[in-house]
Specification:
Length: 461
């Protein structure tokens, strides 16, 4: 037979339109898109009524191996992603212990991840105080970019990730700019957020409302402005992670219009949840930046529809349930991070495409095409002949209520448990091989490959 696999009768989302056709795979690549291809295949999947999407590229994932594998490891984390329709993850350098902030540690952690991940993966290095001489070493090992915190990271453990001050950020931008890789910034004003939190705690105000009030929207906007100005002095590609306010996105848009290479991400939880739902869900929805007022969420959606948000990443930041609890009911003592990557595709498709009418081609740009372009991952992110056959089948006619038993995380907790989701991932394919089906679960052993930026220079988006 000419093709190893044909996906027949699906609604195929190409970069420009949806076509009702067959998609043929050969040698792990998309070989043809057209009609009547099933007769030439060794194996056929009948995707009648299903949406055929490029597998999501989640460019913001936290895996806690080594050092904190009981939080999340490459096996469980990649399974959750694959079951949710993600075929590539880019992994942040923090929350593993030690953090990935040296060339030597980068190489060690790369070797740990190989043979454990069910999806393809890339790794970021980290910018922390005192590691400027390690930036090029990590780049040489294949770093996709470098993460930096303007907000306080909150851990004094040896080897844990540390935030940088403005001087260290400036010097880091200079060093990273020379590599041609992006710097990914968590933008919140550390002095103000720390001061407001200390003030609340001193007054005995430690509930959810107090936490939200300690991280108001302006602390993000101010830090975004400051980082943009520093990046202007250093000619570095600046990428903001998890922006939560439309005003921050406005700053990015303005900088881009002025000729800077500045891009941004938001996350499903900043679009789907708000501070009122935080009160109902409880500590499982604690994150930083904090969840916002409903009006701010509406404004962020407008930025997504206007094409001013470049990518959507999960910021999957898991922890054991014990770290999401406080005997004193002190929200400031509770781990801040949302476990949610397994529902990247289905929940966001439901909210964005089905409920709000976002064109599915725009959905694909946010979740696959632009992340591939931005981070220089060639031959991924599109359903196009010659590209890797990284494919997700999504049934828009299935509905289900997310339950604990559905989760593949090491710690089976999620801010979205109990949510009704009005579509469902049925099959995930990585480089032409079926790795997950809803009926069978996981097929075969992990085959995820380590990815590097495969071309010099990324055009400004």
């Amino acid at each position: 037979m000419e093709y190893s696999l044909v996906i027949a009768n699906g609604h195929i989302v190409t970069p420009t339109k949806v076509v009702n056709a067959d998609l043929a795979i050969k040698g792990g690549k998309i070989a043809a898109i057209g009609s009547g291809l099933a007769d030439q295949a060794d194996k056929v999947i009948d995707a009648n009524g299903q949406i055929v999407l490029p597998g999501m590229i989640d460019s913001h994932v936290h895996i806690n191996e080594p050092g904190r594998s009981d939080w999340e490891n490459y096996h469980t984390g990649s399974q959750a992603l694959a079951a949710g329709g993600t075929t590539t993850m880019l992994v942040m350098p923090l929350n593993a212990l030690p953090a990935r902030t040296t060339g030597e540690e980068f190489k060690r952690q790369k070797e740990i991840a190989e043979h454990k991940s069910y999806v393809d993966f890339g790794l970021y290095g980290g910018l922390v105080p005192g590691n400027l001489t390690e930036i090029q070493k990590m780049a040489d090992e294949g770093a996709m970019g470098f993460k930096a915190f303007m907000a306080t990271t909150g851990s004094d453990l040896p080897g844990d990730f540390k935030n940088v001050n403005d001087y260290q950020l400036l010097k880091g931008m200079q060093a990273i700019g020379k590599t041609g890789l992006p710097i990914l910034v968590h933008a919140e004003n550390a002095a103000i957020t720390d001061g407001l939190a200390a003030e609340k705690i001193a007054e005995g105000k430690t509930d959810i409302q107090d936490y939200v009030d300690s991280r108001p929207p302006f602390v993000e906007v101010e830090a975004v402005r400051r980082a943009i100005y520093l990046a202007k002095q250093t000619n570095v590609h600046l990428h903001f992670v998890h922006l939560s306010t439309p005003e921050s996105v406005d700053q990015v848009t303005q900088a881009r219009q002025n000729g800077q290479n500045v891009t941004c991400e938001t996350c499903p939880h900043y679009l789907i949840l708000d501070r009122n739902q935080f009160e109902k869900i409880g500590p499982l929805a604690k994150c930083s930046p904090a969840l916002r007022d409903p009006e701010i969420v509406k404004g962020l959606w407008k930025k997504v529809f206007a094409g001013q948000v470049d990518t959507i990443g999960s910021d999957h930041s898991p922890a054991p349930m014990s770290m999401k609890e406080s005997p004193e009911h002190n929200i400031f003592d509770i781990w801040g991070g949302v476990s949610g990557c397994q529902n990247n595709v289905d929940l966001l498709y439901d909210e964005a495409v089905k409920k709000r009418g976002l064109p599915v081609t725009d959905f694909v740009k946010l979740t696959a095409e632009t992340p591939a372009t931005l981070f220089g991952i060639v031959n991924k992110g599109k359903l196009q002949v010659g590209y890797d056959a990284d494919i997700t089948l999504l049934d828009p006619n299935q509905s289900y209520i997310l339950k604990t038993k559905d989760l593949y995380y090491e710690n089976k907790i999620s801010a979205y448990t109990g949510f009704k989701i009005n579509d469902r991932v049925t099959t995930t394919i990585l480089r032409g091989q079926i790795i997950y089906t809803l009926k069978q679960g996981f097929v075969g052993q992990p085959t995820g490959r380590f990815l590097t930026k495969q071309r010099a220079g990324v055009e400004s988006l």
